[in-house]
Amino acid sequence: MEKEILRIERLSVSFSQYGRGLARRRLSAVEELSLSVYAGEIVAVVGSSGSGKSLLAHAVMGILPYNGRLEGRIWFNGEPLTQKRAAKLRGKELCLVPQNVSYLDPLMRVGEQVTGGRSSPSRRGKCKSVLAGYGLEAGVERKYPFQLSGGMIRRILISTAVMETPKLVIADEPTPGLHPEAAGRVMGHFKEIAKAGAGVLLITHDIELALLTADRVVVLYGGRMIEEAPASAFSDETKLSHPYTRALCRSMPKNWNPDGERLCDTGDILSYMRKEYGR
Amino acid sequence: MKQERQNRLRHGGIWFGGQILRAAALIVLVSVLAFFLVSVSPIDPLQTNVGQAALGAMSREQIEKLEAYWGVDTPPTERYLSWAFDFLRGDMGVSLLYRRPVAEILAEKLGNSVWLLLSAWVCSGLFGFFLGMLAGHRRGGSADRFVTGLSLVVASTPSFWIAMVLLLTFAVQLKWFPIGLGVPIGAASEAVSLADRLYHAALPAASLSIAGISSIALHTREKMIEVMESEYILFARARGESEVCLILRHGFRNILLPAVTLQFASVSEIIGGSVLVEQVFSYPGLGQAAVTAGLGGDVPLLLGITVLTAAVVFSGNLAANLLYHVIDPRIRKGGTE
Ligand SMILES: Nc1ncnc2c1ncn2[C@@H]1O[C@H](COP(=O)(O)OP(=O)(O)O)[C@@H](O)[C@H]1O
Ligand SMILES: [Mg+2]
To answer: What CATH number does the domain located at B2-40+74-336 have?
Structure first.
C-alpha cells in the first residue's frame, strides 16, 4: 500500500454573512467532507459549478478568504496540516495548479513567475528545461502571459508545480476551454506527475475526463460528498450508490443508446437533488 | 517583422502629430477664453492702477494716453489678434504693470514657482502612493481606516485653508519657518542661497503636497485592493511567496503605472492650488503673478501665464499617455501576438 499523502476528515467551510438587518448567519459551503489521496494516485473531485471544489482546494492550501471558517481535520504526509505548516509547505511539497491565465501576474514575464519568488541561476536553468519538456519553445520565458495561447498558459501553470518536488498537486479545473486533444495532453502531464510519486487531486466538472485520468472519483454536490468510487465503477452503474451519480454516469455520451436517445431524465434528478440538498 | 516595426513607427508618428495639433488647439482656446474673461471683467484697469483721485486730476490728453497704454480704446478682437500675431512671431509683449517683457517676468516667476510646484508634486506623489499602498494592502484594517479618513478630510479641505493653518502653526506660533516671500527680506539676489529658497518654499510646498495627497492615495488604495484580491495574488500566496514578496513583486508592479499616470495627469491640480497657496504666503511665483495680472487688467502678462500653464498641464497629460504606451507591455506589444 502506498503512503497516505493527504487525509481530510469531516472538513467544513463556512462563511459568515450579513442577512437582513444586523443578523449574521453562517453559510456553509462545504460540509463534512472526508477523503484521502495516496502517493502516486490521481483522485478526481467532480461536481457542478458552485459545489465547493475550489474551496476544498483552498482549504488544503490554507488560502481561504479571511471571512471563511474551516472546521475538521487535515493531515499531510502523516502529520496534522495546521495553517502554519501549510504556509511553510505550500509552493514546495504542496502545489496548486490553477485554472487560467488570470492566476498569472499580467505584468511579469512568465519565466520569472515559473521560478517564483526564489530565483537563482539553477532555478532559472530548471525552469528552461521544464518548459522545454512541455514542448514550449525556447524564449517563451521572456514573454508576458497575454502573449501566450490558452494551451501554453496551461502548460506554464503546470510547470510551476513541476519546478518543485511536490508530494501533493491540487489541480483546480486545469482543462476548460481546451479542445479535447489538448485537454488529453494536459491530463497526460498529471499522470506523469503521479507516476513520479506525487498524489494528485484533480478538480474538474468534466466527468469523462476524470474517468480517463483518475484512479478514484469523488462526487460533490452542494458542498457535500455524495459518492466515492473507483473509476472502474462508472462502467457499471449498479456499483454506484447515489442516484445523482448514476444519472451522471448515464448522461455520458458513451452510455447513450445507439440511436442517441438519453437514458435518463436529468431534470427529474436535479429537482430531486435541489429538494434534498436545499440548493 | 521589419514591416511591422515600420508600421508601428508610422502609427506613433501620426499619434504624436495628433497630440501636437491638440496642444495647439488647446492653447488657442485657453488664450481666447482668458482674453474674453478679462475683457468682460468689470475691473477698469485705469481706475485700479492709476486711482480714482489721480484720474480726476488729469487732463483729457493724459487720460487718453493712459487709455491707449492700457488698450481700453482698441476693440477686443483687434487687441487679441495683434497679441496672437506677436505671440506667433515669438514676442509675448510687455507687461503693463511691470513694464518689462512678459517672457522675462515668466522666466523669473517660473524660476520661483518651479521649486514649489516640483517638490509639491513629487512629495504628494510619493507620500500618496505609499499611503495608498499601505491602506489597500489590508482593506478595512486600521491603516486603511486612517489613510481613508485622512484623505477624505484633506480632499474636502481647500488648499488655501491648509496653507493658513500651516502658516499660523509653524510660522506664526512656532516660528520654525518664515511667514512669507520667496527669499529673505532685504537680501541681495546674489546673496540668496539655494537653502534660503528651499526654506522659504517649505511651507507653501507642504500645503500643496498635503492638498494633492488625497487623490493619489485613494486611487492607489483602490488599485491595491483590486490587486490584493486578484487571482494572481492568491496563486502567488499558494506558491509560498511571503507577504512582503507579494507586495513588492506583484503589488508594486501592478499599481505603479496607474499611479504615475494619475500623478502626471494631476499637474493641473497642483498648479491650480498654487495660485491660492502662493497668495497666502505672498510667494512671488506664477500663481501670484496670475492673480496680480488678472486683477490689474495686465492682458499680455495674463495671457502669457495662461499659455505657459496650459502648455505645462498639457505636457503632463502627454507624459501620462506616453507612459501607458511605452511602459505597459500589454499595450507596448500591440495587445496580441
Ligand atoms: N468568499 C466567499 N464568501 C461567501 N461565499 C463564498 C465565498 N467563496 C465561495 N463561496 C461560496 O461557496 C460555494 C462554492 O464555491 P467554489 O468552491 O468556488 O465552487 P466550485 O465548485 O465552482 O469551485 C459557492 O456557492 C460560493 O457561493
Ligand atoms: Mg472553482
So the answer is: 1.10.3720.10
